[in-house]
From TrEMBL:
GO terms for molecular function: DNA binding; N-methyltransferase activity; site-specific DNA-methyltransferase (adenine-specific) activity. Residues 137-476 form the DNA methylase adenine-specific domain. It comes from Runella defluvii. The keyword Transferase applies. This is site-specific DNA-methyltransferase (adenine-specific). Belongs to the N(4)/N(6)-methyltransferase family.
Amino acid sequence: MTYLLFMKRIDELDTQKMRDKEKGHIQNYTSIFDGTIDLPNFKDPIPKETLRWSAMEGMKDDEMLYHLQQKVFPFIKQLGGENSFFTKHMDNAVFLIPKPSLMRDAYRTINEIYSEIDREISEGTKDGSQDSRALLNDIQGDVYEHLLDELKNAGKNGQFRTRTHIVQLVVELVFADISDKNVFLDENFRIADPACGSTTFLLGAFKYILTQFTSDKYIKPSDDNFMIGTTGDLLPANGHKKLEEDTFFGYDIDPTMVRIGLMNMLMHGITQPHIDYKDTLSKNYNEEARYKAVFANPPFTGSIDKEDINDNLSLKKATNKTELLFIERIHKMLTEDGTAGIIIPQGVLFGSGKAFVETRKLMIEQAELKAVVTMPSGVFKPYAGVATAILIFTKGRSTENVWFYEMKSDGYTLDDKRNPDHANSDLQDIIARFKTRNPQTDTDRTGSVQKCFFVPKAEIVENNYDLSLNKYKQQIYEEVTYIPPKDILAKLKTLEDEIQNDLAELQSIFQ
């Protein structure tokens, strides 16, 4: 189904770009359906125009299935050119719809989805508050990501997508101290995810940057009150090219997830996604000091064969736990002054083993650990029940104080249903307090005034680099007034007398 949605999407994208070219909005664009293509099993070249999704309208069921299997699918596997990441990783992809009737049902369903998308766009652009092209990108991307969630719920392919509102929170925290939006367009500004999965973190960063270059009239709050605007109408001439071709880089060890990630990026308008099949903890990956921002929700409680661990990772001697090794890998990937946002299991914060201590020491002594945001255990239900935390650190600076925040609610119930509970959400409070954090005033550790406080580095070092919030939070014990024992005994005696009197009365009735 993901391949079919992608086929429809590239037809829509190409049609939109050809319209933009006709209107003079873009220059030098050549349709991907221009010309012909040589395909196996066909003597004559195939006109690419016949490979559009829209070209299948009116085909019989068996003709449509044959057309997709033998022509369209081989064509999309070559998109991006012979040396592109997309072509490289689509090489072994297989089209598995076996029956013409199923193909017809899928074709009809996807067209119905796009009819609904057209209706949403028509409604959303009536008052001029939204741009139709940006809205199309958003909705189509949302449809694709919803499908990923459905696949995950069904237990297929092992897709695990970090929830969008958590992604947006981490992205906001990582970029909170960037005051000049033009920094994002610097030729050396690159963003990576060393365990990217379906690329939700990279897309979250992409949407954040687009929002910074979007006019206020196109910016709207999400359900979680994040301000989102993906028009990018204020981007300079080279802005789109920079973001779409040389900003976002992702790696994963699952070939299926690499293909899904590539298609997900393309569905959101990243024309040349750099998503590659690579184990970033292994000896085959040696990139260092290249990225200004790194995001990750790496595998929890995983392990790797010590023989495969990159020799440049000093933690190799002490551990093969991936949740620890990824922290060092991310630190190495960052440039000086580069910032990371990582989701980790809370055990990393207080583990007493040598590797745990050394990992925390790395973030304290060789970086500025800006924030530790603890999250309740239900945030990743129903897929994982482990309590997690967000770490924000910047390489090349020194830690003086660490800001802690105890998240009580992410805006959803903490059971398996995860129903909306936005009234109790801490997300926007976290962002607001992080942006105005002050070690001189954020000193109350009781939680009675606010849910955040600073802890000096010296205190953390003294506690073996322990980063668990409860280690430093001050518990308030209210005095409880108890009834004096003699009064309790007197009350018991009165009750006993009443019981005896009632029993005597019952006995007299039955005599």
